[in-house]
Inverse folding.
């Protein structure tokens, strides 16, 4: 088992995935921020100024997942892939991150989006979280990068009815939309823990992060609940970064390690797993 740690330092938020560090704004964990894989990450100096001057809105009230544990009545849920992208709320005219950062997406990207509120992930493919995170958090959008982004939808926050009914409505909205940037997160029934494990292994082997379980009859509920469950092959925890420690030897003048503290007061250093670009 590997552990993911969430930590804050100055204006940007650094997400430690396994022993990797990735830049984001001050959002809590979203989508694939806590995936423990060897994913290319942004340099530590990337887009910090953009994040500090970005326009913000009130953080959207989104449904958040609890962690799946065996024993859940799986017949009551639908399963989909857990996409390692940037969680984004569409309010009918703009995209907003979970933490309230207004995403400066190109106008052509959102052209044809429905006027309904949407909940989904901005995604560039498996194992590319760092790239999509950097792309959507810049003040001046790069058209070439945005061409690789899709908005993967999985819910309608303001619609009534259970999840299964909302999902059918969402399918129709995408079918009626002229946008080529919208993608539906396919949902499938699951019958047993063993079949869920088999599906998880298949997704992870293909480079995915994990699975999500949506309770079929659940209304959309902001906050964390068992109506939404995440299924991942590793544990996670939180730690605050206390200090960036200088490197020695071949890392002279670069980041050597970081000193972190867990909620119980335990302190330790994380020094391996950083790329040279991240240490620079």
């Amino acid at each position: 088992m590997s552990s993911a740690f969430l930590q804050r330092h100055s204006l940007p938020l650094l997400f430690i995935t396994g022993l990797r560090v990735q830049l984001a704004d001050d959002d809590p964990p979203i989508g694939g921020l806590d995936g423990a894989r060897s994913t290319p990450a942004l340099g530590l100096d990337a887009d910090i100024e953009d994040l500090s001057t970005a326009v913000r809105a009130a953080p959207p009230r989104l449904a958040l997942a609890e962690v799946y544990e065996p024993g859940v009545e799986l017949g009551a849920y639908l399963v989909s892939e857990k996409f390692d992208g940037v969680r984004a709320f569409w309010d009918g005219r703009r995209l907003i991150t979970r933490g309230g950062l207004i995403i400066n997406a190109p106008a052509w990207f959102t052209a044809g989006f429905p006027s309904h509120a949407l909940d989904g992930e901005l995604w560039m493919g498996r194992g590319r979280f760092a790239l999509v995170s950097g792309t959507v958090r810049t003040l001046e959008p790069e058209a070439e990068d945005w061409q690789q982004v899709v908005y993967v939808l999985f819910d309608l926050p303001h619609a009534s009815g259970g999840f299964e009914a909302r999902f059918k409505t969402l399918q129709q909205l995408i079918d009626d939309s002229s946008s080529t940037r919208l993608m539906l997160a396919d949902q499938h029934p699951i019958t047993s823990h063993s079949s869920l494990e088999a599906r998880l292994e298949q997704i992870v082997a293909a480079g995915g992060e994990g699975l999500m379980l949506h309770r079929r009859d659940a209304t959309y509920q902001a906050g964390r609940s068992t109506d939404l469950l995440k299924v991942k092959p590793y544990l996670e925890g939180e730690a605050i970064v206390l200090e960036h420690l200088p490197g020695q030897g071949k890392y002279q003048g670069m980041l050597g390690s970081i000193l972190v503290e867990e909620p119980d007061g335990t302190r330790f250093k994380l020094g391996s797993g950083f790329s040279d670009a991240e240490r620079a």
The chain is about 20% helix and 30% strand. The radius of gyration is 19 Å. Residues 163-176 form the longest helix (14 residues).
